[in-house]
Design brief:
This protein has 350 residues and is α/β, with parallel strands linked by helices. The protein has a domain of 186 residues: 3-Layer(bba) Sandwich (FAD/NAD(P)-binding domain). The protein is 34% helix and 29% strand. It is globular. It starts with a strand and ends with a helix.
């Protein structure tokens, strides 16, 4: 089959790897101008290790282990009151996301056609194929289109309807950024949580840098669409009464070049496919960053989808059967991860 995948983060390249091995022609389109060099640490649990091993990259990925050593729980004055084991945030293995993205791109770029700096603008499908229009390239026909383009997936919006129909806000928003490691954290984290607010600081792969997460209770994911100045003001208001390191962190927030504002949310859908269009990873079933399962779920979902496609013909009936079998197998796993994601948000003050 001639297959188009939208999204070149984790799920997209992983799926492209398996589909190419099955003999399909694969194109990956990505809005970013090059492989993304952003994101913080990602972790792996359970069957994700089998997928990495099958791709021949497990040991290379292990070589980027952040080797986190746990997280101190602190009160509002920064006094240690308890400890969480490394596995609570880092899973069985944690690596910087940019390293994983780079590895996945490297092992596929010789076999898969990558188109950076473009995005899908329209989809029209019938029983025999999908006509895809792009923002910057000429239209093309594909046998299958896969949305692996994240929570606010363009493919999902075009094929299934607006984001508001599928994105469930979990009641927490916040910012993440990096700054100088002035706490001297050594592969360790610090967490303070209070009703409606949470502060998480850690230093891992770069000993001179510290990652900062400031989260607070909100009632709308639309805050993600506001301008940076407004988002920063929301954070300052939420943490205005905090002492300890917070005043300094709020000042550094305004100077950060890598600031990212996001809302904790999940993607809930009755089905992950329609005709010759299917979703994988966060686009179809995001479990929220708080679940700690996003990367593992993306890798496992991509592998399982490819396996099911290999068991059926490429006509519409075969694709429909493959998608149905894929959902029957993966949905219990996704439901469990999403439950953990909701519970973790509550633990962090949501």
């Amino acid at each position: 089959m001639n297959i188009l995948i939208s999204g070149a983060s984790v799920a997209g390249p992983a799926l492209a790897y398996w589909l190419h091995r099955q003999g399909h022609r694969v194109t990956v389109v990505e809005r970013a101008p090059a492989p993304r060099d952003s994101g913080y640490a990602v972790d792996f649990r359970g069957r994700a290790f089998e997928v990495l091993e099958g791709m021949g990259i497990l040991e290379e990925v292990r070589g980027h282990d952040t080797r986190m050593r746990g997280t101190d729980l602190v009160d509002a004055e920064g006094r240690v009151t308890g400890e969480l084991p490394a596995e609570a945030f880092a899973g069985e293995l944690e690596v910087p996301k940019r390293d994983l993205t780079r590895i996945l791109h490297r092992v596929t770029e010789g076999d898969v056609r990558y188109v950076f700096g473009d995005s899908i603008s329209a989809l029209t499908q019938d029983g025999t194929g999908v006509r895809v229009e792009f923002e910057n390239h000429e239209p093309a026909e594909y046998d299958l289109v896969v949305g692996a383009d994240g929570v606010y997936s363009t493919v999902r919006r075009l094929a299934f309807g607006p984001h508001t129909d599928h994105v469930r806000h979990l009641g927490m928003s916040g910012v993440g950024f990096t700054t100088a490691n002035h706490l001297g954290l050594d592969r360790r984290g610090v967490l303070h949580s209070a009703p409606g607010r949470a502060i998480y600081l850690f230093s891992a792969a770069e000993p001179d840098r510290m990652t900062v997460s400031l989260s607070f209770a909100t009632d709308s994911p639309q805050l993600d669409l506001l301008d940076r100045a407004t988002q920063e003001e929301l954070v300052r208001t939420a943490f205005a009464d905090f002492g300890w390191e917070v005043p300094r962190l709020l000042k550094e927030m305004g100077e950060a070049e890598d600031l990212l504002f996001s809302s904790a949310c999940q993607v809930e859908m009755d089905r992950w496919s329609t005709g010759r269009v299917v979703l994988v990873g966060d686009a179809g079933y995001c479990a929220a960053p708080s679940s700690g399962m996003g990367t593992s779920q993306a890798l496992i979902g991509a592998h399982d989808l490819a396996r099911r496609l290999a068991e059926h013909d490429g006509d519409l009936a075969g694709l429909t059967a493959a998608f149905a079998a894929h959902e029957r197998e993966l949905r219990p796993y996704v439901a469990d991860n999403q439950r953990h994601g909701r519970e973790a948000v509550k633990m962090l003050g949501g």
